[in-house]
Design goal:
Residues 22-487 form the Major facilitator superfamily (MFS) profile domain. It is found in: Cell membrane; Membrane. The chain crosses the membrane at residues 35-52, 64-86, 95-116, 122-146, 158-177, 183-203, 231-249, 255-277, 289-306, 333-355, 367-388, 394-414, 426-448, 463-486. It is a single chain. By secondary structure, this protein is mostly helical. The chain has 17 helices and 2 strands. Strand 1 (324-325) and strand 2 form a beta hairpin. The protein has helices at residues 4-10, 22-49, 61-77, 79-90, 92-111, 115-143, 152-181, 183-203, 221-247, 253-277, 283-306, 312-320, 338-357, 364-387, 397-425, 431-456, 461-489; strands spanning 324-325, 328-329. The radius of gyration is 22 Å and the shape is globular. A two-stranded antiparallel ribbon has the order 1-2.
Length: 494
């Protein structure tokens, strides 16, 4: 077991744009992992609801949106298992590698013309693989820096820019392959991206020093037996409940979505309670966990809006937006590139801004509040697009692009800052698991979205976008008012 100081000293502290050298390894590993994921996600919804004659599976559109929301929620929920495995068994670096292999297998299955069976099988592998990789690669980034290192927030912003470079290129390339050679060709491109990411990771691990090389809270022999027993019992219970649901006719997507929504809310609640009550969490760490709760709620609200880019907004783009430009029909998947494109352009500005402002910059709670103002306004813009567009006329795509731009401003105020804050607020014994908790905010948001996509079909578009937009802005105002209380409870963390 090594101390935080020993880990930081083992990492070359210069070598990548003024950041620790290991940031290069993690930057490009996550670049290719996100390339594979966002490339697949850009066409997956369309693959599900396009007619069989168009190369799709021919599923009902609402059902396809529900499946996408459930899928997104489970991907982030799986971070609980991935964080636990890294903390207690493998360490974060091995978890990242094993996760990458599983993700690649999932994309290969989608690239094969095996229908619905391959769809659900691939989702299983990608869910488990992402749970191992995504929270743990971010944890390793945190290990590269001393807690008081002023470069920390800017380092996470640079790392976040790498994520979005992959996210920008993937929909363009995958969408192009899908348009010209079909959905399975597009999914094959995603599989190749993950393979490249694994090669980059293996070839440059030395730059990480000791970061992520050991489990910070390894299982004792007694705990190993107890864990094996609990996982076995849990697996049996899941199989029995699934069998009962099937026999009683309750095994359908709608009921499963209700279960996921309940878990999306319940699991983070139990998770925070468990860490707070643990004897391994000291008084300062307990206070920081309490401060984390309103930040977590902010993140849930933000991602409930932002993650609809792959469901409601993607459907709106595909069915309600004018996709013809200069005689060329733009693939709907290409709109998924606007979010990462804006982040690539703006993230460096934010990184420089936080570094220059230093202690004079807005506190983490205030940044979160501002992010909710932007996300709420993005949905109000969608109302303007609908109201100002003549009936029976397709919406000008610039409205959608502007809405995406506002979400990006909110994302840069919340996501990289939240990653950084999570590594600083995490109890020492639960470092990987607290990072998993951060991703549970997106899981909870998507779990809630599994119900919202059903509401979307029942109410007017203006009511749908208006209620969510106003709710986001109101919550932002509340967080802004109580930000001094939150900051005080963070016990010196900004």
């Amino acid at each position: 077991m090594y101390s935080k100081e020993e880990i930081v000293k083992s990492v070359p502290q210069t070598g990548f744009v003024g950041q620790p050298k290991g940031l290069f390894t993690l930057f490009f590993t996550e670049f290719w992992e996100r390339f594979s994921y966002y490339g697949m996600r850009a066409i997956l919804l369309f693959y599900m609801y396009y007619a069989v004659k168009d190369g799709g599976l021919g599923l009902d559109r609402t059902q396809a949106n529900i499946i996408m929301s459930i899928y997104g929620s489970l991907i982030y929920m799986s971070g609980i298992i991935g964080g636990w495995i890294a903390d207690r068994i493998t360490g974060t670096r091995k978890a990242v590698f094993y996760g990458g292999i599983l993700i690649m297998v999932g994309h290969i299955l989608l690239a094969l013309p095996l229908g619905v069976t391959a769809l659900y099988s691939s989702m299983f592998f990608i869910i488990i693989g992402t749970g191992l990789l995504k929270p743990n690669v971010s944890s390793v980034v945190g290990d590269l820096y001393a807690p008081t290192d002023a470069r920390r927030d800017s380092g996470f912003s640079i790392f976040y820019m790498g994520i979005n470079m992959g996210g920008f290129l993937a929909p363009l390339l995958v969408g192009l392959f899908q348009k010209n050679w079909g959905f399975h060709a597009g999914f094959a491109v995603a599989a190749v991206g993950m393979f490249i990411g694994l090669v980059v990771y293996l070839m440059s691990q030395k730059s990480l020093g000791l970061a992520g090389s050991f489990a910070p809270n390894p299982l004792t022999d007694v705990e190993k037996k107890k864990s094996a027993r609990n996982f076995t019992i849990g697996g049996i219970v899941i199989v029995i409940l699934g069998f009962i649901a099937y026999q009683t006719g309750n095994a359908n997507i709608e009921n499963f979505s209700l279960l996921i929504t309940a878990l999306g809310i319940l699991i983070p609640t139990l998770f925070i309670t468990y860490m707070y009550r643990s004897p391994k969490t000291n008084a300062d760490e307990k206070s920081r966990l309490l401060a984390y709760i309103p930040l977590f709620l902010c993140a849930v609200m933000f991602w409930a809006i932002a993650e609809q880019s792959s469901t409601i907004l993607a459907t709106f783009i595909d069915t309600r937006t004018n996709l013809t430009f200069l005689g060329f029909e733009i693939p709907a998947a290409w709109f998924q590139s606007f979010n990462p494109l804006f982040i690539i352009l703006i993230a460096p500005i934010f990184a420089v801004l936080w570094t220059k402002l230093g202690d004079r910059g807005p506190s983490t709670p205030k940044k979160f509040a501002l992010s909710l103002f932007f996300s709420g306004t993005s949905f109000l813009i969608m109302i303007a697009a609908i109201v100002l567009t003549p009936a029976d006329t397709l919406v000008n795509p610039l409205w959608v692009v502007f809405s995406i731009f506002l979400v990006v401003l909110g994302e840069l105020l919340l996501s990289p800052v939240g990653l950084s804050a999570t590594t600083k607020l995490a109890p020492a014994a639960f470092a990987g698991q607290t990072m998993a908790l951060w991703f549970l905010a997106a899981a909870a948001a998507q779990a809630i979205n599994a119900q919202l996509v059903r509401v979307y079909e029942q109410v007017s578009e203006t009511a749908y976008f208006g209620v969510l937009g106003i709710l986001s802005i109101v919550l932002g105002i509340v967080i802004l008012i109580i930000s001094p209380i939150i900051t005080k409870a963070m016990r010196g963390v900004k």
